[in-house]
Each structure stands twice: as structure tokens, then as C-alpha cells.
Specification:
Layout: H1 3-15, E1 34-45, E2 48-56, E3 66-72, E4 78-85, E5 96-103, E6 109-120, E7 126-137, E8 142-144, E9 160-172, E10 178-186, E11 191-198, E12 205-212, E13 221-229, E14 232-239, E15 256-263, E16 268-275, E17 284-290, E18 296-301, E19 317-318, E20 325-330, E21 333-338, H2 340-343, E22 346-358, E23 373-381, E24 390-398, E25 401-408, E26 413-417, E27 430-434, E28 443-450, E29 453-458, E30 463-468, E31 477-483, E32 485-495
Parallel strand pairs: 1-19
Antiparallel strand pairs: 1-2, 2-3, 3-4, 5-6, 6-7, 7-8, 9-10, 10-11, 11-12, 13-14, 14-15, 15-16, 17-18, 18-20, 20-21, 22-32, 23-28, 23-32, 24-25, 24-31, 25-26, 26-27, 28-29, 29-30
Length: 497
């Protein structure tokens, strides 16, 4: 073990003791201590799900990137393990950036990550140089491969940048061949996804350019993931510097799902459909895993680079992961739903039917409160011929703070708004999305609250909105209001982990 890794492990073990009780989310993974961003190496190994993550144990802001490590039997109940790797080699001394993991035939656990160094360019400026590296371990301790890096500038196609070359995602096909997609960028600043091939997972070669941005969706494409699902192929990536298209792609640093077909012989993906993966404020760098029973489950970093200041740097931790979500393709669209493991954690059901919400007063219902709970709502207009103008749900409310979710059926708009959540920073606090077919005021919603977040599922999961909130835990009220007249059915359940 290197001195850097030994130091990180000692630090996190000592300082994590200060983070107790409600200081952490109840069921979303947060860092052992310090800073967390991208999920890495989401994999199943020796009977456990392993989650690694971009990690700065020494501060609650981005810094020298290590890989943090946690394990779970169900992707919900997490146990922290010591940091897995640290930036301690000449080829990664400026950071061990994002990557993935896979089990080898000999039962070793293989990590593939981006190693970062800095060098002077022709203009005399210091720039990042990114390569792909390996580490091999037993689920607890990892040793970096003696022939690192395994992919360098020499392996790139013409025009690809050595500065923006990162985030490998590994898989193995039915013929035993290993593949990896890696984010890349060409001279005009536009992103592309490169496909690499290996017969043994250690010697790699460029195979093809899987897909190209051509300056359509932002610039650099980060954190790619590629898999087959429900008879289609799916490419997930997180573009930087996106421009909005209608109500799609509003995050700047955002997320996108392409659905299409794959020509394996040529290594070419043909896009047919595209959409934002999540329409909230905080969702980036999604990574998926195929579970032991063949479900495809996705987890993302519940943060946005442009809104990191919402969490003060003097806090003991910053960053959290989303709820694990099973994903499916239906009607040529990505659908998301909480996993079946999550559903078993719902207890203490409280139900109301036909509650009238009108403009005369704000409504609060007995036992509908709290910060760790699941709400399922069916909202409709009292008069379908004359639907309400706006319906509002206030949660994490108390002491003058709250976050709101509003529905405007005439416009087909659902909006999340956290500007009154207690934040002291003038950063991104609102996000709107267009929801079709709610002109009559009917909408089905599921709101999952944890202590520091909300995740909203619309309809049957065809759209989601994810947002981090850091309101004081004493703010527990939930109320409802309507500009017009509406009826509401609601089921509230506690989430017991």
C-alpha cells in the first residue's frame, strides 16, 4: 500500500466518526467523509454490489481524486470500505478519475480508470493528459497494473485529444471479448465515444468511433455507458455545456439517453431517439449495472457542477448518489422506477382518497409529514372541463423554508423550486419540464424524500426530476394548495431501512 493510500484510509476512518445520525442521508449513499462525485466501478463481485466513487477525503470540495468504496447486498444498505486507490503513481499523480469494474475469470476484480498527469503544451500552458489504467484486487485491496497505462495518446484515432480522454466503461460479451467505451473530444471541441477491444482485459486496441456528437448536444461527452436493453441498444452519456432544446437539456452539464441500433461488426451505433434522462437540477454521470436477475439498474451522482455551492465547504461531507432505479425501454423511451428492493422498505401506510384542494386554503393532512418518506399521488381537476390553473405541493416545510413542486396543466409544465429551501447561494434553484397529456389536470406522481433530496417520478416513470435539498431536518411539514379546484388521492409510506 502506498503512503498516499494509507494516509487516506487513516483519515477517513478517523474523521467519519464525526458524521452521525441525521447528518447523513437515510438511504442514499454519501461519501465516507469529504467530497463525492461520479459513481465508479458499479459491479457485482463475490456476492456483493460494489460502488466506487470519485472522492476527496480531505475536504468537502473537489480535490485530488481518489476512489472511495462501499458495498451492499441490495444497492440500498451500504457498508463503507477503505479507499480503494489514490493518485500515487507517475501516470495518475493528478488524479484517479472515473471508470468501471468487472470480474475476471480467475475471480480477481479489475478496475479500469482514467489516470491524469499535467504537462506543458506548445503555448507554455499546463494541461491535463489523460490515459486509461488498470488496478486488480480482491474486493478490498487493489494493486495497480505494472504495465499502466494501457491506453494512451498513441492509441487514439486521428484528431482525438489526449486532454479529454476519460471515463472508461467495461463489459464482456457472450464470446468472451472485453469492450470499453471511453469519452473523447476532437479538435473542434465536440464530443465522441470511442470503442476499444481486448481479448484478455489487459491489452487494448482502438476498434471504432461508436458515436459522434458533431456539436449537437453540448461539447465533451463524459461518463459513457453502453448496453442492450429490451431489444434496443442504449448509449448514456453526460455532455458538458449543453444548450436547451425546448424543455430538454437545460442543465448545461447534463445527461442524455440515445436509443438505437448497433452494428457490432463495424462498431457503429445508429441513433434513433434521444431524451434527457432526468429533468431535475441534480443528476449527472449515470452508471448502470445488470443485476444477478438480469435487471438493468442505474445510479447517478445527485449533483450538478453548476450548483455545487449549495453545500458549504465547511460541512463534513458533500455529494450523494441517487436511488437505484430499474430502467426499461417502452414506446421508444427510457422509463425508470424504484427497484423491487426499495419497495420492500415501505411501511406504515397512510391513505386519503378524494381530498378536495381549492383556492380557499392551504391543506395539511394528518400523518402526511416527514423527511424520509414515499408519496404516491393522483391529482385531477374537480371539473375536467375547467381544470385548475396551478396545483402546488410544499415539502420540507417549516420555519419559513420549503421546496415546492407545481403543476400547470394549461402549459403542460411541472416545476421544482428550492429557492426557499434555506440556501444562501444564488445558484440554480428551479427546473421546469414539459409533461404531455395533462391538459385536463390529471397527473400521477411519486415523490421520494430523503433527508437531503427529493426524487420525483411522473406517470409510470417516463420522466423523473432529481434535486438535492439541504433544509434543516426540523422542517417536516407537507402541505397542498391549488389555484382552482382539484381532487387528490394520496398514499404516504415511511421508508424504513
Amino acid at each position: 500500500m502506498s503512503l498516499k493510500l494509507e494516509k487516506a484510509r487513516a483519515y477517513e476512518k478517523e474523521h467519519s466518526k464525526k458524521i452521525i445520525g441525521e447528518m447523513r442521508p437515510a438511504f442514499h449513499l454519501s461519501p465516507y467523509v469529504g467530497w463525492m462525485n461520479d459513481p465508479n466501478g458499479l459491479s457485482f463481485y463475490r456476492g456483493m454490489y460494489h460502488m466506487f466513487y470519485q472522492y476527496n477525503p480531505y475536504n468537502s470540495k473537489w480535490g485530488p481524486m481518489h476512489w472511495g468504496h462501499a458495498v451492499s447486498k441490495d444497492l440500498l444498505h451500504w457498508e463503507y470500505l477503505p479507499a480503494a486507490i489514490a493518485p500515487d503513481m507517475p501516470y495518475d499523480d493528478c488524479g484517479c478519475f472515473s471508470g468501471s469494474a468487472i470480474e475476471l475469470d480467475d475471480r480477481r476484480h479489475l478496475l479500469m480508470y482514467t489516470g491524469v498527469t499535467r504537462a506543458e503544451n506548445e503555448e507554455g500552458e499546463m494541461v491535463d493528459c489523460q490515459t486509461q489504467c488498470l488496478a486488480i484486487g480482491d474486493g478490498l485491496n487493489y494493486v495497480k497494473y505494472e504495465n499502466n497505462p494501457v491506453l494512451t495518446e498513441a492509441d487514439l484515432p486521428d484528431g482525438a485529444s489526449k486532454i479529454d480522454f476519460r471515463d472508461p466503461k467495461l463489459w464482456r460479451d457472450n464470446e468472451g471479448i472485453y469492450w470499453a467505451v471511453v469519452g473523447s473530444r476532437i479538435a473542434d471541441g465536440s464530443g465522441q465515444i470511442l470503442l476499444f477491444r481486448s481479448e484478455n482485459a489487459f491489452s487494448w486496441e482502438y476498434f471504432s468511433t461508436l458515436d459522434e456528437n458533431k456539436n449537437r448536444f453540448g461539447k465533451m461527452w463524459e461518463c459513457p455507458d453502453f448496453f442492450e436493453l429490451d431489444g434496443k441498444h442504449v448509449l448514456l452519456t453526460s455532455p458538458q455545456d449543453m444548450l436547451p432544446v425546448g424543455f430538454e437539456y437545460h442543465n448545461g452539464n447534463g445527461n442524455i439517453c440515445f436509443i438505437g441500433d448497433f452494428d457490432k461488426e463495424k462498431g457503429k451505433f445508429k441513433e434513433q431517439y434521444n431524451q434527457a434522462v432526468d429533468y431535475g437540477i441534480d443528476f449527472y454521470a449515470h452508471q448502470t449495472i445488470e443485476t444477478q436477475d438480469n435487471r438493468r439498474v442505474m445510479i447517478a451522482w445527485m449533483q450538478n457542477w453548476d450548483a455545487c455551492a449549495i453545500r458549504a465547504h465547511d460541512e463534513a461531507w458533500a455529494g450523494q448518489m441517487t436511488l437505484p432505479r430499474e430502467i426499461l425501454i417502452e414506446n421508444n423511451r427510457l422509463y425508470q422506477k424504484p427497484t423491487k428492493e426499495y419497495e420492500t422498505c415501505l411501511k406504515n401506510k397512510v391513505e386519503y382518497k378524494g381530498v378536495e384542494i381549492s383556492q380557499s386554503k392551504e391543506v395539511q393532512l394528518e400523518e402526511i409529514n416527514g423527511r424520509v418518506l414515499d408519496l404516491q399521488l393522483q391529482i385531477s381537476a374537480k371539473d375536467a372541463e375547467n381544470p385548475y390553473y396551478k396545483f402546488i405541493i410544499y415539502f420540507a416545510k417549516g420555519g419559513g423554508t420549503y421546496t415546492s413542486l407545481s403543476i400547470r396543466p394549461y402549459e403542460g409544465i411541472v416545476k421544482i423550486d428550492r429557492k426557499f429551501s434555506g440556501t444562501r447561494r444564488a445558484i440554480l434553484h428551479q427546473r421546469r419540464m414539459f409533461v404531455p397529456n395533462i391538459e385536463d389536470g390529471s397527473i400521477k406522481l411519486r415523490i421520494i424524500l430523503d433527508r437531503y433530496s427529493c426524487e420525483i417520478f411522473v406517470g409510470n416513470g417516463e420522466q423523473t426530476m432529481t434535486t438535492a435539498i439541504y433544509t434543516e431536518q426540523s422542517a417536516r411539514d407537507i402541505t397542498f394548495a391549488c389555484d382552482g379546484d382539484a381532487l387528490m388521492d394520496i398514499i404516504k409510506q415511511d421508508i424504513i431501512m
